[in-house]
Amino acid sequence: MTEQNLQGTQRLWLVRHGTTQWNSEQRFCGHSDLPLSLEGRRQAQWLARRLHSEQITTIYSSDLLRAQQTAEIIAAHCPQPVRIRVSTAWRELAFGDWEGLTYAQIAQQFASHLGFFADPVHNSPPGGESFSDLVQRIQKAFVELACTAAEECAQGKGGAAVLVSHGGPLRALLCSLLALPLERQWQLRLDHGSLSAIDFLLPLEGTGTIMATLALLNVQRPTRLKRVPTAQASEHSLTGQRLEGPMRHV
User: What residues does 11 pair with on adjacent strands?
Assistant: First the structure.
């Protein structure tokens, strides 16, 4: 049992799965089942190293391949056996007819159905899932997760847990736990292969309220700075400027 468990709180590490080829091409993935790319596996390996010493006992994961592969890489690096609990509840929002398309292609082919991008709470992708359905399933799944954590803590089996999911479910979960309007979900940046964390009070029997605190948001695998000739480096140091790495592709 960890110190946090003794204080009645539980640490839940939030992981957005590593990147896929479609992610790199800025295509909407949704429920399409895609494997990690080479870069995605590197991100998962960094996550595994970062979480190695965190006394992880359980990993919860979306059933989609990109999330399961990320979870399996993390579990393989844990010093003790770790349970992986897979559930469809942690899947990404289903984007229906948009899956496999870029935003430019969607804007061209579905010009009269773009309300989702301005107001995703009240508009759904054609043939896809409503945001309210997504919120309902992740809230139910989180209550089950929290109750399981409370039971295991009572049995002396408590430890930190990891949730490997997708951008949509993780943002919706954070909005729900932190009482943020869903319209502000896009202000929570969660990149592929990123690590966040919440600490929540273990629910007491007969109570439905779960209090949570955001402990960490969107920590990512470091990228190396480009090497520059000595003369250029000296020029930068003289002007007080700091050398930057490659620009981030969005």
Answer: 199
Helices (H), 38-77: 38-51, 65-76
Block residue for tokens 């009269």: 112
Question: Tens digits of per-residue pLDDT, 131-184?
Answer: 999 999 999 999 999 988 888 877 777 789 999 999 999 999 999 999 999 999
E-only strand ranges, the chain: 9-16, 56-62, 83-87, 160-165, 195-201, 212-219
Residue 17 known to be catalytic: yes
Q: What does DSSP say about strands 160-165 and 9-16: parallel, antiparallel, or unpaired?
A: parallel
Identify the bridge partners of residue 195 per DSSP, sorted by sequence position.
15, 219
The burial class, CB within 10 Å (0-12 / 13-18 / 19+), for 9 is buried
Residue 232 tokens read as 């250029």
What tens digit of pLDDT does each residue of 191-205 get? 999 999 999 987 665
Compare 34 and 238 and report the one with higher pLDDT: 34
The span from the CA of 4 to the CA of 159, in Å, is 9
Domains and their CATH numbers in the chain: 3-238 (3.40.50.1240)
Whole-number Cα distances in Å, 23 to 42, 50, 108, 126 = 15, 23, 20, 20
Candidates 3, 25, 52, 92; catalytic one: 92
Residue 111 to residue 115: CA distance in whole angstroms: 10
Task: Note if 92 is an active site residue.
Answer: yes
Sign of the dihedral through C-alpha 174, 190, 165, 149: negative
Q: From the candidates 17, 31, 166, 192, which is the catalytic residue?
A: 17
